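Usage

Read records sequentially. Each one opens with the input sequence:
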Amino acid sequence: MKIATYTFEGRRHAGIVDAGNRTVTPFEDVDTRVDGALAIIRLAGNGDGVPIANGKAIPLDQIKLEAPIPRPARNVFCVGKNYHDHAREFARSGFDSSVSSADAAPVPSDPIFFSKVPESVIATGDIVRIPGDLSVAIDYETELTVVIGKGGRQISAASALDHVWGYTIINDVTARDIQGRHKQWLLGKSLDTFCPMGPWLVSKDELDGTDTRIRCWVNGEPRQDARTTDLIFDIPCLIETLSAGITLYPGDLIATGTAAGVGIGFTPPKYLKSGDVVRMEVDGIGVLENRFV
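and closes with the structure output:
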């Protein structure tokens, strides 16, 4: 099942996208004008299940896709250095404040968490604004993102996937110079428009998050190509770690980390510039594409 949030005739809706990605059928009996697909996930998390999409199917080319969760209820949970190859390239970059030198062990012993503020979320097709007065080192990061369906605290790894509703894609846009200057990651990753999300939510029965291919292109040039089998900490581990002391709620988002091939991994770095188009694809979900200006 794919659930999209979209605007049609001046109003926000949520609906089910058909298998061929041609139409979307709205949930007419649920008020999704404020929260979009989040309203549907909350119903499912409360044990009510996903309601019936009983509206009239609308061709996708007649609607404007929004971020599936346009305004998360709280910060997006994000994981740093969670692919083996990326951990090594990031340690070599000189921007990794979690290691003391390039010779230090690049692979973390425990998951590294940070967050992005809700206001940074935008949709596929929206413009990412490059803040030229703040940063000249804008980078991209393709991330398979978990959508929590059933809340809880102290969730064990063995039962963690029972708490997952599904997945989406997030581009963890990062201002590397801000990240390096402040020796932490929140500021450089939470600027306005720095969290493209989409194109929709996909239920976990349609996607195997343990072995999923993720890819990224910049202006058509391949940059990232990896599988989630390279994750250092798998999805159950991440949920167990987060929920050990933090209660998770339906609609919470966990961006699981990015693979090797980000701009900072090249010599010299390949930072994004105005006019660049970043296209991300995760098997089983679809395409997230944004232009940077």
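Summary fields computed downstream for this record:
- The first helix runs from residue 37 to 45.
- DSSP finds five helices and 19 strands in the chain.
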